[in-house]
Design a protein that fits this description.
single chain; mainly alpha; three-stranded antiparallel β-sheet; 10 helices; EC 2.3.1.225; PFA4/ZDH16/20/ERF2-like
Length: 416
């Protein structure tokens, strides 16, 4: 069981295998002849143990806590809902923590909104693996997996054996170069065995971090602490005068025995089960919020008979322009363009009136009225300048036609 980011894990395997291969191919041959044949045997045993603990750490379940099902999450939310006494019928947000007492020490259980459960003591949610891990220590990119309750001992044995293996190779490389230098000089020895120089450089820069990490985790094992607890200072003196580690067995020997020799709890994952899609996350799955719901058809537009143009023209009322005459009546029709009386053809696209501003619509209506009064082409005759104050006041801006009082335009308004 590995995380999604496995690039550094492959780098770890490459460094160990290549360095060990150079050691067995060049240094072990010379040392087995001039020192003892036990050197390659010890190196081979260390290499096998290092790779075995590495793979066991990387491909084992660190203690993942399964997420709550829909029924479990609903029941938990129902139990957390507490009516607000001040306002009947309303509910306050559910509490995010619970408190339990372990050996007289109060420990808070935090609610995980991703897994929909209260995490057990010492558990935490890994952002890289996106799972809650029991006795979460840390996420190690070098092994490509979280380090938790079920694989911590293998991780500790891995870094401990790797530090010994690194020191062993570095010591053997120096021995090889010193024995070769006794015959001539040190530069000649490096020319005769260039692989030893590469091994020495890799081991020299790696041994400090590996040995330091092994020493730090030795302290954690002896104290029965995790990296997460040590960094946060969960049981330090600043938490309170009575703060102590309730998980410690009381002695270094018992703590080491508990971590390294205690029983490994069974995995809570059903590796033979089938993945059932969660209907509650049908619309949002993953970290990116991908919508997996099927595309629904667009909502039907209910159109009544009075919203359609007369004479069976397939144009809705909200696509038309409402003209108000001086007598107060409103005419719903499409304005003619270039003196034509038929509505323009949109060719299945959105009506062109949607792209016009209010000034353009008023200008078009006034131009048509100007053409009807004077018998001119609105495309070639410009009416008098538009005044917005006249439009707001509702007064006519065109001269009246004798004998006809209903041809005056008071502007236009949109009804979308």
């Amino acid at each position: 069981m590995m995380a999604r980011q496995t690039g550094i894990f492959y780098l770890t395997c490459t460094l160990i295998i290549v360095t060990s291969g150079l050691f067995f191919g060049f240094d072990c041959v010379y040392l087995a002849q001039h020192v003892t044949p036990a050197i390659p045997a010890i190196g081979g045993a260390l290499f096998i143990f290092v790779m075995a603990t590495l793979f066991r750490t990387s491909f084992s379940d660190p203690g993942v806590i399964p997420r709550a099902s829909l029924d479990e999450a609903a029941e938990l939310e129902r139990q957390m809902e507490v009516p607000n006494a001040g306002s009947p019928g309303t509910y306050r947000p559910p509490p995010r923590t619970k408190e339990v007492v372990i050996k007289g020490q109060v420990v808070k259980l935090k609610y995980c909104f991703t897994c929909k459960l209260f995490r057990p003591p010492r558990a935490s949610h890994c952002s890289l693996c996106d799972n809650c891990v029991d006795r979460f220590d840390h996420h190690c990119p070098w092994v490509g997996n979280c380090v938790g309750k079920r694989n911590y001992r293998y991780f500790y044995l891995f870094i401990l054996s790797l530090s010994v293996h690194c020191i062993y190779i570095f010591a053997c490389v120096l021995t090889n170069l010193i024995l070769r230098a006794q015959q001539d000089n040190f530069l000649t020895a490096m020319k005769e065995s260039p692989a030893s120089v590469i091994e020495a450089i890799v081991c020299f820069f790696s041994v400090w971090s590996i040995v330091g990490l092994a020493g730090f985790h030795s302290y954690l094992v002896a104290s029965e602490l995790t990296t997460n607890e040590d960094i946060k200072g969960s049981f330090t003196a600043r938490r309170g005068a009575d703060s102590f580690n309730p998980y410690s067995k009381g002695s270094i020997f018992k703590n080491c025995s508990q971590v390294l020799c205690g029983p490994v709890p069974p995995s809570l994952l059903d590796r033979r089960g089938y993945v059932v899609p969660d209907s509650s996350q049908a619309h949002h799955t993953g970290n990116m919020g991908t919508n997996t719901a099927p595309d629904l058809p667009p909502p039907a537009v209910v159109t009544t008979a009075d919203e359609m143009l007369p004479a069976g023209e397939n144009v809705k009322k909200r696509e038309m322009i409402s003209y108000q005459t001086p007598d107060g009546t409103i005419n719903n029709k499409l304005p003619p363009l270039n003196g034509t009386s038929s509505p323009p053809t949109c060719g299945g696209r959105k009506n062109h009136i949607w792209d016009m501003t209010l000034n353009q619509l008023n200008y078009m209506g006034r131009s048509n009225n100007h053409a009807a009064i004077h018998g001119t082409n609105p495309g070639s005759v410009y009416p008098q300048p538009y005044r917005h104050s006249d439009y707001l006041s509702g007064t006519s801006v065109l001269p009246a036609v004798k004998g006809n009082k209903s041809t005056m335009s008071r502007g236009c308004s949109t009804d979308f």
